[in-house]
Amino acid sequence: MESKEFQLRRKYLMETMGEDSIAILPTASTYYRNRDVAFPFRADSNFYYLTGFPEHEAVAVFIPSRDHGEYLLFCREEDPEKERWEGQRAGIKGACENYGADDAFPITDIDSILPGLLEGKDRIYYAIGYYLEFDRRLVNWINQIRRASRAGKRAPGELVALDHLLHEMRLIKSAQEIKAMREAARISAEAHIRAMQFCRPDIMEYQIEAEISHHFCNQGARSHAYPPIIGGGSNACILHYTDNNTRLKKNELLLIDAGAEYDYYAGDITRTFPVNGCFSPAQKAIYELVLEAQVAAINKVKLGNHWNDPHEAAVHILTEGLVSLGLLKGQVNTLIKKGYYRQFFMHRTGHWLGMDVHDVGDYKINDEWRVFEAGMVLTIEPGLYIPASPDIAKKWWNIGVRIEDDILVTKNGYEILSAAAPKTVDEIQSLMASS
Ligand code: GLY
Ligand code: MN
Ligand code: MN
């Protein structure tokens, strides 16, 4: 992402905030996996969206129209001895020169500087409730000013949800964001192809995971956007299965939900295919029904339609199909109204996608489903998950199918960012037969 892009975002934010206000954004904390071993650090999405600053222990402050600079960054100071052990830091100089801060201060000085910046402002823009320790520090800074009221100091009176403002910005992707998302989707789609080519009976689910991780990292996507789901047979019916440690059997379906994070943007793709490369008639019937629902839902993504249109289309087709396969009995409209399809399809058809896999942005505005706008990116991911239950004919047991693509809303309709991952029965079977 070019530095100009971050600069434009900051400019827009500050224009929207108006004068007499201050915005404060800490980046994410470091989390520990065990004892002194930390999880790999990943910046907070809102913080990174405005700063492009990848280091931990940093806080960004925005003060529109401040004479001595509007964009302040608190970060770690240069420290040659520490850097020798832990790697390079931008430092105070780098924060200004390489990340566009007007002014930068050591993070260790924040307690003495921030109360002075807050004092006399009317409004604080802050996303409360995400970093509780930081919430507490902010309250302490405000209280410090309140205690000095007899000396004429004035604490801000209004706290405004900064996340809401930023989330509306993040919902509509710019050309550069779309470029990163195309790349995340390309890498993710290729990894799914690699998984289909590698898959064979009797290997472990985590061996498929290894192929996917290899491809992501090899392509410059150093992280998964979320823990991958690699579930064979009945594991495909566990919606958030991530153990990925079962041996794959020849007559099962394998469901893979895996997406790369590339330059802070997520891919999110699900493909389901037979472990032995050949769909059985029952697997094929369920698969083609989910695919029909997915294609119908994708076709509902266009300007003028609203967020729930794809879900409604998917539910309609799935319910009709479940009736013709004998898995549901009754009138389609009644079954939909009463939600009987939820025995087999218990999640929504999609979500916004962006820097976070379940990305930000409201789904309703004034209690009405939100209308699609160019630049939104969403997933379309209907599924059917059939439990091994005595009430259900045995041939359907443990068939779990989800098909998920990443869709960009365009002026003329949509673009399927993840289209390179095969999804018809023929495409999948021929790819697997030729591997
Ligand atoms: N991988 C998470 C989801 O599909 O929503
Ligand atoms: Mn998804
Ligand atoms: Mn997914």
Automatic annotation (TrEMBL):
Key words, A-Z: Hydrolase, Manganese, Metal-binding, Metalloprotease, Protease
Domain Aminopeptidase P N-terminal per the UniProt entry, residue ranges: 1-135
EC numbers, comma separated: 3.4.11.9
Protein name in the entry: Xaa-Pro aminopeptidase
Species: Candidatus Nitrosoglobus terrae
Cofactor dependency: Mn(2+)
Recorded superkingdom: Bacteria
GO molecular function annotations of the record: manganese ion binding; metalloaminopeptidase activity
GO BP terms, alphabetized: proteolysis
Family statement drawn from the similarity comment of this UniProt entry: Belongs to the peptidase M24B family.
Catalytic activity: Release of any N-terminal amino acid, including proline, that is linked to proline, even from a dipeptide or tripeptide
Annotated GO CC locations: cytosol
